[in-house]
Design goal:
- The structure is a single chain.
- The protein is of the alpha+beta class and about 80 residues long.
- About 20% of the residues lie in helices and about 45% in strands.
- It is built from two helices and three strands; from the N terminus they run E-H-E-E-H.
- Strands 1-3-2 form a three-stranded antiparallel sheet.
C-alpha cells in the first residue's frame, strides 16, 4: 500500500475522486505541502509548483493498481 497526497480534482467530492479513488482508497487525513497552485490555461485542474505557500490537501492509502491508474490522470510536463 502507498500513501498519496491529493490537492485538486482527486479530493473527495471532486470528479476525479469519484472516478479513481471512491471505494478504492482509505482516507488517512488532511495535510499541507509547501508549494504554489497555478491555474493552467485551458485545464480544469491546478498545477502544483515549487513555492512557500501551504497547499491544503488530503492523504489517502491506495494499492498498486490504483497507483498505476493515477499515473495517467496527471499530464506530463511539456518541454
Amino acid at each position: 500500500m502507498k500513501q498519496i497526497f491529493v490537492y485538486g480534482s482527486l479530493r473527495k467530492g471532486m470528479y476525479n475522486y469519484e472516478r479513481y479513488l471512491k471505494g478504492k482508497s482509505r482516507f488517512v487525513g488532511y495535510g499541507y505541502v509547501k508549494g504554489c497552485l497555478y491555474a493552467l490555461k485551458d485545464a480544469a485542474y491546478p498545477a502544483l509548483l515549487d513555492g512557500d505557500q501551504d497547499v491544503f490537501g488530503e492523504i489517502y492509502e491506495i494499492d498498486e493498481q490504483v497507483a498505476s491508474c493515477l499515473l495517467y490522470t496527471s499530464p506530463s510536463p511539456r518541454d
